[in-house]
Amino acid sequence: TRNNEVLSGNLQTIQDTSTLADGNRIPLAIKELGSTEVFASTITHSPNGRFVTVVGDGEYIVYTALAWRNKAFGNGSSFAWAGDSNTYAVLEGRTKLRVYKGFKERTTPAMRGAGSWALDAVHGGTLLGARGSGTVVFWDWTTGEIVRRIDADAKNVSCISF
After folding, report:
1. Distance CA 36, CA 146 (A)
2. How far is CA 2 from the centre of its chain?
3. Contact 55, 41 (CB under 8 A)
4. pLDDT band at 46 (very low <50, low <70, confident <90, very high)
5. Alpha carbon of 147 to those of 77, 97, 150: distances in Å?
6. Does the predicted model carry a pTM greater than 0.70?
């Protein structure tokens, strides 16, 4: 992004990679996709690449990746995709965790224990991960059950697929 403009570049269009030296800028043709209403602090692609989420200014907006159309939006400080690109979670404030499936809020089952800990961010993948001060929690996306809670200070959390 550049301010509120969203730009796109394709690394596959680079013709001769043998002349590129380590540490130098890559000559890349960039085109403007569109603009976003929020100043982006994070941008996240859905696992299948069809959607892009922009988070910033206490809000999130989900866009279609190719046409750059608004698909969903709301309040949120952190955003995480599940592995299926149909489910995602949004952290509102530090204690309210909302889960969406098919772009509609899922009311049951709730993520067990959500709201009990002050959270800094959510992280997507096979499990829904959340980190707070001195703790990391992993939930099952489907059942809402806690898979593991770890007492540790973490900066980034990855829920990789096996």
Report:
1. 35
2. 19
3. yes
4. very high
5. 23, 17, 10
6. yes
